[in-house]
Amino acid sequence: MTDEPDSSRKRARFEALALPHLNAAFNLARWLARDDQDAQDIVQDAFLRAFDAFDGLRGDNARPWLLAIVRNTCFTWLAHNRPGLRQVPYDEEMHAVADLDADPERLALRAGERVRIDAALARLPEEFREVVVLRELEELSYREIAAVLAVPMGTVMSRLARGRRLLARYLTADEDGA
Amino acid sequence: MECHESQQLLALSLDGELDARSEGALAAHLEACADCRRQRRQLAALAAGVRAGATYHRAPAALRERIEAALPADHVVAGRGRGQRVFPWRFGWQLLNGGGLAVAACAAVLLAVLWPQAPSQEQRLADELMASHARALLSDHAIEVASSDQHTVKPWFSARLDFSPPVRDLAAEGFPLAGGRLDYLEGRPVAVLIYHRRQHLIEVYVWPTAKDAAAKPEYMQGYHIVGWTAGGMAFRALSDVDEKELQRLADLLRQ
After folding, report:
1. Is residue B73 scored above 80 in pLDDT?
2. Contacts of A61 (CB under 8 A, 6+ apart)
3. CATH number assigned to the domain covering B121-254
């Protein structure tokens, strides 16, 4: 019988496990890099890295594993290609964050307000943006997000809480016509 | 339940990360508290708004093609056309093709058992420990009996459990006892001893066991877990402190 080489088996297994998460990978990279072309380059690079590291994957839940590689590739790429363009300092933002105590009517967001919500999400400092994207758009569990970010679950929860407070503030301030 | 507590739990509840017991307590509080109900509506509206309103960027078709072209071992794509699925236990297939049926059957069974690796019991336990720890930290229930006095903590456990965990204050060694609580692991009640180590918290889960098995240290998501058995009790210490420090506490408790 003709035996397929190891590398082809590996590739087939990699494709079966990793390619289904291509959209998740691209969505994360696109939200972090905020540019279509850059996100494509990053994801391609990340998939090649993931392929090299594939033997180290245990179990079948490839998504957090792959997203962790995408995220790392992304930050490396950004540091390289856009030095100095690291996010706005968020301290000033944090001090002014009110609790979620605005009028609920103003927070009752209407679907279709894509531009406004996209702008608010894009404005979030990336350490909060990534947890909000992973939670709300990818619907990862706290545990999976912790695995992607390589931080304790408590950190995921506090970043998520702060990210959401900031988002609420951007969206309500925005409605005041600011 | 107080409002500040309820507000910490709201996000967990909406994210589906809250255990049934806390969920019940939260529901009871919401029933009675209009402020917290409003907070819940706001959080839910925000999440729904982001989910419905934020763009989900799907990968362009060209990207998939680029990746497939860039991956090594391109000839496989042709190979897959033969309708032969690629199984991890190809070793078994080779034997089968060589005619060693019985051997192959054994090998296949063995490999099926070994691969893909189902999470081991220890792995599942570690997952449960992490979840329990995270819940406790967030729900303010981390410590149900707050005392550095082992003569207060030990009877507290004895009154609530059908076993009596060894309780020792180790302040002199740098691990002051902070208290304890009850929790559930794998469906049984367990004692949790809480120690402080500088700014960190160390939790030691204790339950009776018939097995005398040693567990190898685990590292997950920034947490170390060290396990051992002694005197008919199983112990799992969990913390985000350095593994060496956790091991030191384990050694002290084992004495």
Report:
1. no
2. A144
3. 3.30.200.100
